[in-house]
From TrEMBL:
Residues annotated as transmembrane: 21-39, 45-68, 89-110, 130-152, 164-182, 194-214
Organism this protein belongs to: Saccharothrix espanaensis (strain ATCC 51144 / DSM 44229 / JCM 9112 / NBRC 15066 / NRRL 15764)
Organism ancestry: Bacteria, Bacillati, Actinomycetota, Actinomycetes, Pseudonocardiales
Keywords, ordered alphabetically: 2Fe-2S, FAD, Flavoprotein, Iron, Iron-sulfur, Membrane, Metal-binding, Oxidoreductase, Transmembrane, Transmembrane helix
Domain of life (superkingdom): Bacteria
GO molecular function: 2 iron, 2 sulfur cluster binding; flavin adenine dinucleotide binding; metal ion binding; oxidoreductase activity
Name by which UniProt lists this protein: Oxidoreductase
InterPro entries membership: FAD-bd_FR_type, Fe3_Rdtase_TM_dom, FNR_nucleotide-bd, MRET, OxRdtase_FAD/NAD-bd, Riboflavin_synthase-like_b-brl
Major localization listed first in the record, in broad terms: membrane
Amino acid sequence: MTTVQLSAPAVRPKVVARTGLHAVLAANVVVVTALFVQSGQSANALILLGRLAGLYGALLMAFQLLLVARLPWLDRRLGMDRLTSWHRWVGFSLLVTLVAHAVLIVSGYAEVTSLPPVDELVTMATTLEGVLRAVVALLLILVVGGLSARFARRRMAYETWHFVHLYAYIAVFLAFSHQIGLGGTFTSSPVATAYWWGLWGFALGAVLAGRLVLPLWRNLRHRLRIAAVVPESDDVVSIYITGRDLHRLPARAGQFFLWRFLTRDRWWQANPFSLSAAPDGRHLRLTVKALGAGSASLRALKPGTRVFAEGPYGAFTAMHRTRPHTVLVAGGVGITPVRALLEELRGHVVVIYRVSRPQDAVLLHEMRDLAQARGAVLHVVSGPSNAPTPHGPPLGARALAAAVPDIRDRDVFVCGPPGMTGAVLQGLRELGVPKRQVHAERFSLAS
């Protein structure tokens, strides 16, 4: 085995990004609280608490925009799956603060006017500027939040889910206009006004830059087209993408793009597919297994078809390595980023490829050739997940330790379906593999 020295960064990129986001949020909470106190507003306790909840809600709304802006610096360090998870939890916190804001404000004013809360809400909505817009914004956020719950999300296509989330931007606009119209803290001082304009300008500017300007600029620059469509098997196809100056595209092995193939019947569909080969500056390759009507139709794409790609996205890269040697664990179509990583990684690599049946092993011939060329070890694990083995479950702690005795001294990259990924992560915890050495990517997208 060749010894490779790896100088791990003093502070891991993931830690830097996570700590930075927490620090930014905490600092803004302090600023918002200080501006609220300095505004010197007087009212009963319910109204004051309601106003403070509304300000925290506005801050969380801006923070949510930052999490889904797809800024490259954050995405490369944290990954879209982690940012999506944080976005979801911040969204639930936002719902709580905004509902609290509405209930406390209405209850507080109802106490002052001696009207029933419902009558007070109707009066406020029909007589005060911006209140009706705030009510509509809250209803939109409640709808989007309800459709973001897992049981609802799983029943929608990505395009439908994405379209519904566009209403959240309408809610942001309505909420901000409400804050301008009635927010006493917003106009209490030039400093407060400058802060809130700056906060919303930065959040919306980040979304505009990350989700519109940067993708448009990259696609105009690189002019991507399909170079070849190569069947790998009856249900697997590889698509080779070419373009201008691809060596300037900051893509790494392990990352993915949102691909739009600009044909009459597909231009509106955004498909998240990982690179199945390390970028070489001349081509990008993705390999797709027919899991639905959309992916099955890719075989019919023609060379020369224009491609619009958003990305690269994902933190499943060698950037996060901490140890000289590596274990790569892939399940199903999760083999595509793992196959690309195998090309780039240095040091000794062990690959564990989990499939239900041997014939389901996508790109197996390439994996064998690469493993032989790189001096890596390849284990193909097939059969039912409950099949008895001498070492327990196929990807349990004992099986992982048997396949890789020194697994505690390696980085472990895991990519595959949620069930498989969860089983591997549980096994790694039982084996005592340090958390900083475990790098997992689940199949999920930010809205």
